[in-house]
Specification:
Blueprint: E1 2-5, H1 10-22, E2 27-31, E3 51-55, H2 61-71, E4 75-78, H3 85-90, H4 93-115, H5 119-124, E5 126-132, H6 157-176, E6 180-185, E7 187-189, H7 198-207, E8 212-215, E9 221-226, H8 227-240, E10 246-249, E11 254-256, H9 257-271, E12 282-285, H10 300-306, H11 314-327, H12 329-337, H13 341-348
Parallel strand pairs: 1-2, 1-4, 2-3, 4-5, 5-6, 6-10, 7-9, 8-12
Antiparallel strand pairs: 9-11
Helix pairs in contact: 1-8, 2-4, 4-6, 7-9, 9-11
Bound molecules: nicotinamide-adenine-dinucleotide and 2'deoxy-thymidine-5'-diphospho-alpha-D-glucose.
Length: about 350
């Protein structure tokens, strides 16, 4: 049994599905179901008794304490977060509430539970904290990629909140001995990603023949990793990662934003022709404030120490992703229309979470 937080979001839901397929042991999935949480992502495991969904907040110490006591998970895999940089620029407070205060609450509940365990279980427990490369700040065109020893220099409220949570996790290991492992990953893409992030937004807008908004000059660079490879890396870090260590995860696939968007347009021209090239929809818009220029990941440590490497190439992963969205227009419609929120209203009404 493992406890996953944020397992109804993009990476979390991919992780839960992959975990049940690859490992098979049960998962308790604690998710608040914010706008980013969508139980339709988990439709394919509906009725699977190995998946126990609990709607609740990671900061609710009583709830987390009860779940830990009842299920005695061997690991906590912590995905839950506010994750979108643009939203953090418009309203940072929620990012501090969930990513910092929420993570602190979760750590406290886990520490209280862990302290009371018999010694073998104490040693075996893992708290795996899922974090981001954005904590390292921005690189110049020729700078070496981020390694685990790159100093933290977060630039957006989102990155600052994730950096703070990383520091708390580090402190819980050093101060209390909690067996934590932190992973810092680059930009993910793949099925079930909410269409506010670059790749799904461009796919969904192109299908609706809406403009494809590119910030600034479109030459900002991100390193892209297929979500399935990230899930794989997390399973590896959980199984073999050393407590107290951090591991960078990346796809060795740096691309300028405009090149990513152009590739999506080319794939759509082929898989979903519309008479005119989709690239005609590309529109340059005002830049994101404080927009980081370049991210790149040096993933040598996780390769050397844990034997992980990405399997998917960006070109094929992007094609699979575009095809997934084309094949799941129902999901797209329910997300873009807001219909997917009805499940939450029907099942939870206006009640506050668990
Ligand atoms: P997401 O926004 O798609 O999903 C976040 C999930 O967390 C949602 O299901 C939401 O309902 C839940 N949640 C939010 N606040 C909560 C709370 N207080 N209590 C319980 N649940 C709550 O995010 P994602 O893109 O899947 O990212 C998952 C994690 O991976 C985050 O920690 C993020 O920082 C990290 N990460 C993301 C990427 C990426 O490219 N998306 C890359 C590296 C790291
Ligand atoms: O690097 C890991 C991070 O990647 C994760 O920690 C974050 O949770 C995740 O959201 C992502 O952050 P980014 O800011 O890099 O992702 P986003 O998809 O928002 O933007 C990717 C790039 O595309 C970035 O340079 C901004 C640009 N962009 C984005 C959007 C939404 C555009 O040009 N136009 C857009 O409409």
């Amino acid at each position: 049994m493992i406890l996953v937080t944020g397992g109804a979001g993009f990476i979390g839901s991919n992780f839960v599905l992959d975990w049940l397929a690859a490992e098979g042991s049960p998962v308790v999935n604690l998710d608040k179901l914010t706008y980013a949480g969508n139980l339709r992502n988990l439709e394919s495991i509906e009725g699977d008794t190995r998946h126990v969904f609990v709607r609740g907040d990671i900061g609710d110490g009583d709830l987390v304490g009860r779940l830990l006591k009842e299920h005695r998970p061997r690991a906590i895999v912590h995905f839950a977060a506010e994750s979108h940089v643009d939203r953090s620029i418009h309203g940072p407070a929620e990012f501090i509430d969930t990513n910092v205060v929420g993570t602190l609450g979760l750590l406290e509940a886990v520490r209280a539970h862990w302290s009371g365990l018999p010694s073998a279980e104490r040693a075996a427990l893992r708290f795996l904290h899922v974090s981001t490369d954005e904590v390292y700040g921005s690189l110049g065109a020729t700078d070496p990629a981020f390694s685990e020893t790159t100093p933290y220099a977060p630039n957006s409220p989102y990155a600052a909140s994730k950096a703070a949570s990383d520091h708390l996790v580090r402190a819980y290991h050093h101060t209390y001995g909690l067996p934590t492992v932190t992973t810092n990953c680059s930009n993910n893409y793949g099925p079930f990603q909410f269409p506010e992030k670059l790749i799904p937004l461009m796919i969904v807008n192109a299908l609706a023949r809406k403009p494809l908004p590119i910030y600034g000059d479109g030459r900002n660079v991100r390193d892209w990793l297929y979500v399935g490879d990230h899930c794989d890396a997390i399973r590896v870090a959980l199984a073999r990662g050393r407590p107290g260590e951090t591991y960078n995860i990346g796809g060795s696939a740096e691309r300028a934003n405009v090149d990513i968007v152009s590739s999506i347009c080319t794939i759509l021209d082929e898989l979903h022709p519309r008479g005119a090239p989709h690239s005609e929809l590309i529109t340059y818009v005002t830049d994101r404030p404080g927009h980081d220029r370049r991210y790149a990941i040096d993933a040598a440590k996780i390769g050397r120490d844990l034997g992980w490497a990405p399997r998917e190439r960006l070109e094929t992963g992007l094609r699979t992703t575009v095809a997934w969205y084309l094949g799941h227009m129902d999901w797209v419609r329910s997300v873009t229309s807001g219909e997917y929120r009805k499940w939450v209203d029907t099942n939870y009404g206006s009640r506050s979470v668990a």
